[in-house]
Write a structure and sequence with these properties.
This protein has 99 residues and is of the alpha+beta class. It has one helix at residues 2-17, and strands at 24-31, 37-39, 42-45, 51-58, 62-70, 76-80, 83-90. The protein has one helix and seven strands. The protein is globular and about 40 Å long. The two termini are 17 Å apart. 21% of the residues are buried. It binds 2-acetamido-2-deoxy-beta-D-glucopyranose.
């Protein structure tokens, strides 16, 4: 599939760039309401205590989000006005921060 090929490409890239112990994560400053990265889709490698993170902003349905490698990553959810923000942190698998 196209998604599979894309993942393989990202995985290959990340292995080329990679430090062995580092975990590759998706990076995208802006994921749109369809869960598609709008700009600067890339791969980051966790360093030290970093984890992959996923941030979702939604009001019943997804409004937008972002992905990356983060320090001091805490998984949490909160409401701001009628909008819910979820932070998800993971380091259990490569690219675990997919939408
Ligand atoms: C998200 O981006 C994709 C690719 O650019 C586009 O096809 C899709 O319509 C966008 N979704 C929204 C809700 O804007």
């Amino acid at each position: 599939s196209e998604m599979g090929a894309r993942l393989l490409l990202l995985l290959g890239l990340s292995l080329l760039l990679g430090v062995l112990q580092a975990l590759p994560c998706f990076t995208c400053p802006r994921v749109n309401a369809s869960g598609v990265c709008e700009t600067w889709e890339s791969v980051c490698q966790t360093q030290g205590s970093q984890q992959c993170f996923l941030r979702k902003v939604y009001d019943g349905r997804l409004l937008y989000g972002s992905q990356g490698c983060g320090d001091l990553c805490l998984s949490l959810s909160f409401f701001r006005q009628s909008v819910q923000v979820d932070f998800v942190c993971c380091n259990d698998a490569p690219f675990c921060n997919r939408f």
